[in-house]
Amino acid sequence: MDTSSPGFGALYWAYGICASVLGAFGIYIGSKTRSQSLRLMRQLQREKRRSDQLANFVIPIGLSLAAETDLNTLLEKILLEGKALSHADGGTLYLVTPEKTLRFGIVRNDSLKIAMGGTSGEPIAFPPLNLRDPVTGEPNMKNIATSCALDAKSISIADAYAAQGFDFSGAKAFDQKMNYRTTSVLCVPLKDTGDRVIGVLQLINAHDPENHGVIAFDEHLGQIIGLLGLLAAAALKSYLRVRQLTEELENLRIQIDEAKKERQVAEIAGSDYFKNLQARAREMRSKVKGRDDT
Amino acid sequence: MAKIVSIHSFRGGTGKSNLTANLASLVALEGKRVAVVDTDIQSPGIHMPFALAEDRVEFALNHFIWGECEIEKAAYDVSNVLPRPGGPLHLVPSSMKIADIGRILKEGYDVRLLNDGFQALIEKLHLDYLFVDTHPGVNEETLLSIAISDTLVLILRPDQQDFQGTAVTVELARKLDVPNMMLVINKALPSMNFADLRAKAEAIYRVPVAAVLPLTPELVQLASSGLLSILYPDLEASREMKKVADHILAG
Fold first, then answer.
1. How many whole angstroms separate alpha carbon B99 and alpha carbon B115?
2. In this complex, do B164 and A288 lie within 8 Å of one another by their Cβ atoms?
3. CA pair distance A151, A149, nearest whole angstrom
4. Residue B120 near residue B70, CB atoms below 8 Å
5. A256, B200: Cβ pair inside 8 Å?
6. Do residues B198 and A248 touch, judged by C-beta distance below 8 A?
7. What is the predicted ipTM?
8. Can you point out the beta strands (E) in chain B?
9. Which chain B residues are Cβ-neighbours of A249 within 8 angstroms?
10. CB B177: neighbour CB atoms within 10 A?
């Protein structure tokens, strides 16, 4: 840990003040309340860490996302920043399609050295996930990513193999094939400004930054990733809107209502004024032509 | 034999007067004797790019229509806008005075007078080209201008209302046997596919597209107070205008 950083300094200062005050308070009222004081101190420490992460990570990332104009780079940034914040080994960014599926937008796994989609140039081999059963129309709540998209809520699982209520058979089959072990999973919905889910950020196997062991995604990190998700969704929504407008402009159609045109032309061309003008124009042009020919 | 070139649009705000002023100036720069008549009597505006001050205008097209002067009396030499010597360039403005505009709107006028005025102007100023800046839309005056034109330049913006209105105008111009007709698509956004837009317009209207002019910040900045093709000749919009002028000269 970098104890010389300003963040640590402020944290240490806040911790020190609180420790002194609460410590003194604790001595005064006895050892029974000391544990409460420690709980308060830990809460204060967590809040300080949260505000530091907001200031130092989420806001700069949001600005960087908003400036991105290439979809692949944007998706990659969203996923990589989410991974970095949570020290996750892998992750997938899904996009909701008009056909009501979750399409794999980008896939990364560091220990398996997998990079598909995004700027990798590698196509994604996985088929999209159905949000609803194509036959019955029932919502697909068995899959953690589709369930997250349908309920529009974050889901954190400490151990996929022990999880109740979700079907991780796909992940298990993948693990067996790749000699991997999917443990902790965090899914965060990416919502647009109208609270509509436009994608899902799924992170796999959070690591303890100190001992590098796989740990669960903690609640605090879930909140931070959720905020990142909001910024990412805003950037994504903005990107998709710009792309849609650009495509509309590029594929501008020239549509003529022929019936309306014929009606309007007939109305004007049928007037006495127009018929007279037409006759005079013909006369004038034939005179000019006669003059030019001679 | 002088050529009459009418610049027309189905709707207002297409950049018609600006295009007319630029084309007339470019043709004059080729040494041709040119005059421009502002027949947009209800909303005159072409005096702006030619920098013709209101207080300089003693007689306007309105006064010719009311029988108060000969047409050449309302023609002002605006050759000073040209960056180098060319042919003489004249402008017959419509009156900018509110009372005069009101009188025309109230009393109307015999549009046949316009044709007499055009012919007199051609004769008196020994013109090679007479440019007519029309009123937008289709009425007796615009139909007359179209009917007597050797070349009709239809200007439109890339939007559905302009597409529909232009289709009507093209059909009417065909019935009036206009020998040369061309389209100019103006205010195209840079993100649009210009080649595709041109191809689609030519297929739909069966009329050549002489130019696709991009929406140009410099033009917006000028706010009709100057000639883009003269002040910024290297811009794409200026180069495209030159192509239209070349089409007119070749027609």
1. 24
2. no
3. 6
4. yes
5. no
6. no
7. 0.86
8. 3-8, 34-38, 76-77, 89-92, 129-133, 151-156, 180-188, 209-214
9. 189, 191-192
10. 13
Closest residue in A to B188 (Cα) is A249
**Helices A71-86/A219-250 angle, 10° precision:** 180
* Alpha carbons A242 and A159: distance in angstroms, whole number: 40
Give pTM, 2 decimals. 0.60
Given CB atoms, is A153 within the 8 Å cutoff of chain B?
Answer: no
Residues of chain A under the 70 pLDDT cut:
1-34, 46-71, 193, 222, 249-250, 287-294
Contacts 24+ apart (CB under 8 A), A120-123: none
Q: Min CA distance, A66 vs chain B (Å)?
A: 20
Alpha helices in B30-159 (DSSP H): 61-65, 98-107, 112-125, 140-147
Q: What pLDDT does A230 receive?
A: 75
Q: In 3D, which of B208, B165, B218, B196 has the Cα closest to residue B18? A: B218
What pLDDT shows up at residue B1?
Answer: 83
Q: Give residue A31's pLDDT.
A: 53
Token pair 């103006």 in the structure block, residue: B186
Percent of chain B with pLDDT over 90: 80
Q: Least CA distance to B138: which residue of chain A?
A: A268
Beta strands in A111-264 (DSSP E): 114-117, 129-130, 155-157, 185-191, 197-207, 214-215
Give the per-residue pLDDT at A47. 66
Task: Say what the pLDDT of residue A146 is.
Answer: 96
pLDDT digits (tens, 9 = 90+) for B179-189: 999 999 999 98
Among B151, B176, B185, B202, the residue to mutate for chain A (most A Cβ within 10 A): B176
